[in-house]
Amino acid sequence: xxxxxxxxxxxxxxxxxxxxxxxxxxxxxxxxxxxxxxxxxxxxxxxxxxxxxxxxxxxxxxxxxxxxxxxxxxxxxxxxxxxxxxxxxxxxxxxxxxxxxxxxxxxxxxxxxxxxxxxxxxxxxxxxxxxxxxxxxxxxxxxxxxxxxxxxxxxxxxxxxxxxxxxxxxxxxxxxxxxxxxxxxxxxxxxxxxxxxxxxxxxxxxxxxxxxxxxxxxxxxxxxxxxxxxxxxxxxxxxxxxxxxxxxxxxxxxxxxxxxxxxxxxxxxxxxxxxxxxxxxxxxxxxxxxxxxxxxxxxxxxxxxxxx
Length: 308
Fold this sequence. Notes:
Layout: H1 4-10, H2 13-16, E1 61-65, E2 68-71, H3 72-88, H4 95-118, H5 125-139, H6 142-151, H7 156-178, E3 183-194, H8 197-208, H9 213-219, E4 227-232, H10 239-245, E5 257-259, E6 262-276, H11 279-299, E7 303-305
Antiparallel strand pairs: 1-2, 1-7, 3-4, 3-6, 5-6
């Protein structure tokens, strides 16, 4: 049943915003952007896509973000959904850590939604209704959709509220990642990796005396010859390798580099100043861009959390 798309939508930021160790990993979902694509099933909602939540005495808030509230009830319901998702994967859950993850994800989503509005995005009633209609159609009709809401701890009002924020946040996310360059300076390298410092020093001395790098790289990695492939700056897990190789010319190799994995000698094979990023490198750059944007927004925003 395509209703699973909805759950994917509400967890999509754990895929791109790598801010926490969220055990639930999902892909973002595309929703129709053209209202004519939406199913014309009648919807029981009275939607209010322009609503901004402001604190009221009779409506408890768990957090305020630039004066805009996150309802305590929305947070509690979101935690139940998160808990259910983790349990379905047969994973243990630390309740306090999970609550922090959920709340921080909700704050990040609200910051992104606010960013969309400040950048001129406005979710129209027509567009919002079209998306709701598509979700109802994907569920198999209004009755099935209402059942799904009930099973997943959503009130109609609460679902609309969170869905609207997700649509705004998605727009801002897409704007951020669209500005990430797809081409960068890159290096293709290979390595000799061994577990002993003494052995690594011996191999380095052999190389200095004219030994063939090929002989050792294939000798200690018979599957790929130590191939690391093409990579840009700020991509490898081991930054010390990047620091070394981006200062080398093709054919040159590093001194022995120690890491948690062992002892490396890395040779630059090719170096290009402008090369298309691989999909994996581009996604990593996009994650970093969103994470940095959120860090900046938090620094420059008023965020208060009710600790009670």
